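Take a sample.
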Amino acid sequence: MTRKAAPEAPVLIVGGGPVGLTLAIDLAHRGVRSIVVEERIGAMQHPKATLLGARSMELYRRWGLDQAIYDAAIPADNPYFIIFTTRLAGQEVHRVQSPSIRELMTRDPVATARFAEMQWSPYGKTQIGQQALEPVLLAHALSRPEIDLRRGWRATGFTQDADGVVGHVQHVETGETQDIASLYLADCEGGVGPIRRQLGIRRNGRGKMRANVSLFFRSPGFLEAHGRGLANLYFVFTPDCFGVFTAIDGKDLWNFQYYFLDASKQTDEVDAEAILFRAMGKPFDFELINVNHWHHHQSVARKWREGRVFLLGDAAHLFAPTGGVGMNTGIGDACDLAWKLQATLEGWGGPRLLESYERERKPIAIRNSIISATNSDKIDMVMDETPANIDQPGEAADRERAELKRKIQWLSRQFSSAGTHLGYRYVGSDIVVGDGTPEPCDDTARLTPTTWPGSRAPHAWLADGRTMLDLVGDDFVLLVLSDDEGDDGNGGELAPLTDAMAAAGAPLRIERVGDPAVQALYERRLVLVRPDGHVVWRGDRPPEDAAAVVRTITGN
């Protein structure tokens, strides 16, 4: 390919959903310009994803977006309830609870004592539909001069050579075509776009697992119809209407995922009214907004990079929604790639840095997709074993409901997912310097806060109201867990490390923390954290070969 045009921007992002916008925003805050092309002009018509996990909220905190997200989410005072019923207006079998947004925001002491996850992050589960999250991200993206957002354009393909990429795009309404030259292309357009297909990259995993139909509807009288109060999820366990209602705005907008356990059933033609009335257990007023046919998946792309083209989000992995980690994994992809692109463009990132994107993120996608698929299997198994008389009166049905409750208590442990969202770590990464200590337990429900190299730097509240997370997330940061105010790296014991970073051109800050509780939590006196908040080295004294450490963590 002979490129005649100079790059319009260093990065071309195909897809302006949550993952693409997150990548553009992260790059913008790092001073990197991007062009985002997005086929849709208006708002998303269906809330495909409805949950932001704690780690995603921590990442959005860096740009001051957490409050705007909270304002667009489920009402802050509502506890996070998951309710299990026969039919929604029928009999309740079980419910589980997580802290409300208000309890998290105010660090409510009663809730803190009750919910272990409040010790591990300033955030918990944030229920927000994708159609409500995107406007928050879009507004911030439009405020950033580094982002050129072009809505109403679809990608049709690309060409690339050793020097750059040209994206071929077409205007949705007029058919006009354009070429956009860039240095790198990020494919964030979802699971069926042309970029991955052109690359010929297949997926591994279980693939399609089963069919579902989502019924997105408006019903101001929904809460009154069932009388159970506002919950985030309402599962229905009667054989003729297996599925789950999801609160989209907590007032008028709701979604019902109708589960087809029988793979031979056709989902193309469905009677929305009959399905919703069966699931509710009685008629109620509603306005159908949208019907979406889709499948549970457990699929991960075999390759995440080809030359200067990278796959992120659904282009790289497809999930079952059980666990709420699909979109969150994509957000993590974006924040991993952003700082590596910045480092490469600024010249201090070596060739291994961009190579590490796939090596680090692909195992996380495999881990998370298997967790989600396993969650789905457990729900399907319990639903499939639920007898037809589960919603009937009488002693026999009472015994069946007691057995169903036992099974639901077993499967509902999957909704304690703090470990899934916060506990992923980059095991064996070649841009992380290990210290030979055993890897901590990877528990989906509970987090073991640790500075084990490759892990997210732990959260802890500081006396001034900040969290330790506020000290990291832009440049490399050397955390000095010590009361000693002496060494600033200029000629002292830290000088070999600070000098090596300076020689490499890599940005480094030093932050001192004298809080004894934080010092114990961070396990070592010196902890080096990279720009996305993950630990890359730790020790009680500076490394013997500081230059070698710096070469490793910068991909050289």
Summary: The first strand starts at residue 9 and ends at 14. The CA atoms of residues 143 and 293 lie 35 Å apart. The first helix runs from residue 18 to 29.
